[in-house]
Design goal:
CATH class: Alpha Beta
Strand content: 15-25%
Oligomer: single chain
Number of strands: 7
CATH architecture: 3-Layer(aba) Sandwich
Helix content: 25-40%
Order of helices and strands: EHEHHEHEEEE
Structural class: alpha/beta
Shape: globular
CATH topology: Rossmann fold
Radius of gyration: 13 Å
Largest sheet: 5 strands, mixed
Number of helices: 4
């Protein structure tokens, strides 16, 4: 199963739906952290990182929002990398293996412009 890390600002939007459909076509089952399991957790971010670290998740895909990622997506990507899981980036209608790294841009803006691709 692939975990889809994305901005909370895109939860419930057409952008989220299109990305999930694209991921399903390529990978099959997609875990979306906007689900009730995560949102009802006492600490949603810790629940996300635990899910990524679990054997249930084989890979992670993420998308940028306004050219950046927030702190949550930054941490999710780095968690997947730390556990040796492949990471992919969703860009419009394509999915590519992410070979780079994320670079912190503004540590104070953790919601949208926290980091970008280096």
């Amino acid at each position: 199963m692939i975990y889809y890390a994305h901005s909370m600002r895109t939860y419930g939007t057409d952008k989220e739906r299109r990305a999930i459909e694209l991921l399903q076509k390529k990978f099959g089952e997609v875990y979306n952290p906007s689900c009730a399991e995560i949102q009802k957790a006492r600490d949603p971010m810790s629940a996300c990182l635990e899910k990524i670290a679990s054997d249930e998740i084989d890979a992670l895909a993420f998308s940028f929002h306004e050219g950046h990622v927030g702190r949550g997506v930054f941490d999710e990507v780095n968690c997947a990398l730390a556990f040796g899981k492949p990471v992919y980036v969703v860009r419009r209608d394509t999915i590519e293996r992410f070979q780079g790294q994320l670079e912190i841009v503004d540590p104070q803006d953790w919601r949208v412009c926290y980091a970008k691709a280096a």
